[in-house]
Design a protein that fits this description.
This protein is mainly α and 517 residues long. The chain is built from 20 helices and 9 strands. It is an enzyme of class 4 (lyase).
Length: 517
């Protein structure tokens, strides 16, 4: 476990903090000023709780049941009942990193001093994270409005010593046992605290932050595989000239073109298409690679802007303001996050689509400019990579289905009190699948492009770019074999997938090019 500490103040968190806690196991500390702010806000809630007038979340029911005033002796039961009833998730458990991310982000909002919880609640949530105790959160249960209610309620339940959680060893056990083993006292919730623990966009935001980090790596990987394919098809790198991209000033496009240009620098293959069958221009999937990947990069930049704003937010209802007022609001609505989650799924689908078209071109003898059919060793006897492209096409087809936006859907809930919802959690869940599919699609292009380059340069007359040669060497060292007779392909494709997913492809290219965008 990474022992790097993340210190939470009252001013939000950074994306790197989320990644450090969710994926890196970083420890979490609450800054003294954050604890002081939490205490001040709690004084406001205690004062309101002592008054006879009903205050939403403090002395009333919730949602459509907010019309009932709850007497003081029933308020602990009110908060307990809220958490228990809202822990209504179903389906398989979501990933550990997702749960750690949403817990950390809920703690981030508690640390803002806007929620009215007691300091002990925040300290206990930090203790759960630091002990490696991860509540079991289920796939279904959030509509992305009034917060990620069911997922957060399952986490709040563990804070109370109820429900199930995964221990640091990965075993799922009763939460009470895990808390006792780690010396963590369960929290008895008081006024407002149950509501404060479940009323946020933390699940969808955590998944957005992680998807942004993954897609940033994949855009670079896709630039590299596009360059390898261009090279294997004897394409021209003249379309990558900076002055061509300067006249259409989209920053992502320029970055992708520069990545491709640097990977291809020193290649002995680019431009040779004029020697045998003259081509005035390369096909769109080659020539327009920077425009498509670049548009995705710019979409990612927008998504990161939205994520950064949300990371600086205190999402709860009601909230405690600086002047001591407690006001209801609609900041829990997930629309801003949901929209960019859907937008990223669209960008991922299009990037996967153009990568598949390049792969198909490498395998088609009528369009590959001298490469053997399907890159087979003995075409007819061998099928080569014919079915690898089928697998890639199946992944692309699913990506297109996953690109259908979730955020345009809304099903009213809570007896029409919550009559418009964001479906942001659903948008986040499908984006995670899309990111994994895209990784596999890029891996198939890598597998085909490296084999094509080996075939193309087998005689020694043509040499690949130094960066391409570094990728070829690294991918073979990673257990991805080169050209030859047919073999069991599935393990080879999985090895290529791991090579892309774990950053081996980018590291290999950057060993020659230096850092790529």
């Amino acid at each position: 476990m990474n022992m790097h500490n993340v210190v939470l103040g009252a001013d939000g968190a950074l994306a790197d903090d989320v990644l450090a806690v969710a994926r890196g196991g970083a420890r979490v500390e609450l800054a003294p000023e954050a604890l002081a702010g939490i205490g001040r806000a709690r004084e406001v809630i205690d004062a309101l709780a002592a008054k006879p007038e009903p205050v939403y979340g403090v002395s009333t029911g919730f949602g459509a049941l907010a019309v009932r005033h709850i007497s003081p002796e029933l308020r602990a039961q009110l908060q307990r009942s809220l958490v228990r009833s809202h822990a209504a998730g179903m389906g398989p458990a979501v990933e550990r990193e997702v749960v750690r991310g949403l817990m950390f982000l809920r703690l981030k909002t508690l640390a803002s001093g806007r929620t009215g919880v007691r300091p002990v609640v925040a300290r206990t949530m930090a203790a759960l994270l630091n002990a490696g105790i991860t509540p079991v959160v289920h796939e279904y249960g959030s509509l992305g409005c009034s917060g990620d209610l069911a997922p957060l309620a399952h986490c709040a339940q563990v804070l109370m010593g109820e429900g199930e959680a995964e221990g640091p060893d990965g075993t799922v056990r009763p939460a009470a046992e895990l808390l006792a083993e780690h010396g963590i006292e369960p929290v008895v919730l008081r006024e407002k605290e149950g509501l404060a623990l479940i009323n946020g966009t933390d699940g969808m935001l955590g998944m957005l932050v992680m998807a942004c980090a993954d897609l940033a790596r994949l855009f670079t990987a896709a630039d590299i595989t596009a360059a390898l394919t261009l090279e294997a098809l004897l394409g021209t790198d003249r379309v990558l000239a900076p002055e061509l991209h300067a006249i259409r000033p989209h920053p992502g496009q320029a970055a992708s073109a520069e990545n491709m240009r640097r990977v291809l620098e020193g290649s002995g293959l680019t431009g040779h298409h004029q020697d045998d069958a003259p081509r005035v221009q390369d096909a769109y999937s080659i020539r327009c690679a920077p425009q498509v990947a670049g548009a995705g990069r710019d979409t990612l930049a927008h998504a990161r802007l939205v994520a950064d704003r949300e990371l600086a937010a205190a999402v709860d209802n009601p909230v405690v303001l600086e002047d001591g007022r407690v006001e209801s609001n609609g900041n829990f609505h997930g629309a801003p996050v949901a929209y960019v989650l859907d937008f990223l799924a669209i960008a991922a689908a299009d990037l996967g689509s153009i990568a598949e078209r390049r792969t198909d071109r490498l395998l088609d003898k009528n369009r590959s400019h001298g490469l053997p059919p399907f890159l087979a060793d003995d075409p007819g006897l061998d099928s080569g990579l014919m079915i690898a492209q089928y697998t890639q096409a199946a992944l692309v087809s699913e990506l297109k289905r996953l690109a259908v936006p979730a955020s345009v859907d809304s099903i009213p809930s809570s007896a029409m009190q919550e009559d418009h919802v964001s479906m942001g959690w659903s948008a986040a869940r499908k984006l995670r699948t899309a990111v994994d599919n895209l990784t596999r699609i890029i891996a198939v292009e890598l597998y085909a492009a490296t084999r094509a380059l080996e075939i193309r340069t087998a005689g020694g007359a043509l040499r690949p770019a130094p960066a391409s040669a570094a990728v070829l060497a690294a991918v073979r060292d990673a257990g991805v074999p080169g050209a030859g007779p047919d073999r069991f392909l599935s393990p080879d494709l999985e090895a290529a997938y791991r090579f892309v997913r774990d950053g081996g492809l980018t590291r290999a290219a950057e060993s020659v090019t230096g850092p790529l965008a």
